[in-house]
Amino acid sequence: MNAPFNPARTAHREPFVAFVCDETTAEVLRPIAVELGWSPEKVNKGGLRNAVQTLSVSASPNILFVDLSESGDPLNDINALAEVCEPGTIVIATGQVNDVRLYRDLVASGIHDYLLKPLNPDALRDTFAQAQTALNAPKLADPANERPHCAVAVIGTRGGCGASTIATSLAWLVSEKHSRTTALLDLDVHFGTGALALDLEPGRGLTDAIENPSRIDGLFIERAMVKASERLAVLSAEAPINSPVMSDGAAFYQLQEEMRGAFECTVVDLPRGMLVNHPHLITDVQVAVLVTELTLAAARDAIRILSWFKSNAPQTQVIIVANRVQPQAMLEISRKDFEGSIERKIDFVLPWEQKIASQAAKLGKPFAEVGKGAKSLSPLADLATRITTITDSGERDDAAAGSGKAGAKGGSLLEKFKVKLPAKAKK
Fold first, then answer.
1. What are phi and psi of 320, to 5 degrees?
2. Residues 296, 417: contact at Cβ < 8 Å?
3. Per CATH, which fold does 144-416 belong to?
4. Please, what's the largest Cα pairwise distance for the chain?
5. Phi and psi at residue 39, in whole multiples of 5°?
6. Secondary structure of residue 140 in the 3-state scheme
7. 214, 251, 391, 426: which has the fewest Cβ within 10 Å?
8. 118 and 26 in contact (C-beta within 8 Å)?
9. What is the pLDDT of residues 10-47, one digit of tens each?
């Protein structure tokens, strides 16, 4: 049984649970369960239907025994069971239908074995022994799982600079172009657009997590995340604006921890106010993407945020992305002057592509996906590649590590741009 995004977590599961339809089957199972060191109380009545209902609200065991005797359509019912089973669970089924085609179809659907009733104790012991061997067998090395987790925070210097658009696009690029299971966590609880940008309903997962942090575990993540594709899932919210969020940030941090175990990459759309209120959210973030426009206010705030990273998260590499950049004649501040004010280079520049942005909004698709054929947006793909290279190597990228210089010198920001500002008319 497999479900997307969550690896097997056998250490936190019951070793064995059974759901049977009759007492005769239960009486055969209980003594064998005791022999194997399992609790006989884990043999429950109710068959497959009870199994689906129970596992929809609780963690799956390592070995699950289900009775199909009362099932009118065993194949469809097994598929329903697969929807609520965590990956890594070994399922053994029993039933009264003696049909080799059914056996083959059930095994093909993912179950470990199908035993015909009435159960033979010796055959049952052999099946359980095989299941335990399969659980304890060494897993084949998967190069993808040997890579460090990729943790990225995307932060806007100002509202409306396009940080959420960049975050959604990065999550899509890492999942599609770099083939990594990716979580997009949108921490703008009231006005987040992570789900909206992907034409999804946000659900209540994020607000439930904030209200009940103790509920956050692997199973909660699996149920709360909204699936956008085979390798991309989103946790976003549209909390009522008359309900202020009262949180010390523990829920946000715990969400990141659980996602770290369930996904290969986490992209966090992080409102800049979170840096002030919950600085611990950056603790394990390897790369911060600072999205900015070329304006005076954005330059001021870029200096302040870069200085914050130098003092509070020196381990995090900062990449600066200038977004929605218009032709030189329409810029409030030139790129050269902006870089001079923050005392470091801009890493990537994305032009203002209004048509692509409008089309992406209409289609409910990521900006990077809609504009994948546009040469002007190739820096987005380069940004995703830079991030995965940094996180895979675990080394500092000198091109993105110059944030420490920003704001080192005193003086007003207006002083740096005074030659560009019109002189006041004399009275």
1. -100, 130
2. yes
3. Rossmann fold (3.40.50)
4. 105
5. -75, 130
6. coil
7. 426
8. no
9. 345 789 999 999 999 999 999 999 999 999 999 998 88
Asked if the bond preceding 118 is cis, omega within 30° of 0, the reply is: yes
0.85 exceeded by pTM: no
Pair of tokens at residue 184? 């997009």
Q: Indicate the domain borders of the chain.
A: 10-136, 144-416
Q: Are 28 and 121 in contact (CB under 8 A)?
A: yes
HSE of 418, CA atoms in CB hemisphere, 13 A: 8
DSSP bridge partners of 93: 66, 114
Beta bridge partner(s), residue 322: 292, 349
- Cβ atoms 175, 231 nearer than 8 A: yes
SS3 assignment for 401-413: CHHHHCCCCCCCH
Please give the Cα distance from 345 to 322 (Å, whole number): 10
pLDDT tens per residue across span 229-281? 989 999 998 888 887 877 778 888 888 888 988 899 999 999 999 988 889 89
How long, in residues, is the chain? Answer: 427
Instruction: Determine contact, residues 123/115, Cβ cutoff 8 Å.
Output: yes
Q: Position 289: which residue type? A: V
Does 10-136 carry CATH code 3.40.50.2300?
A: yes
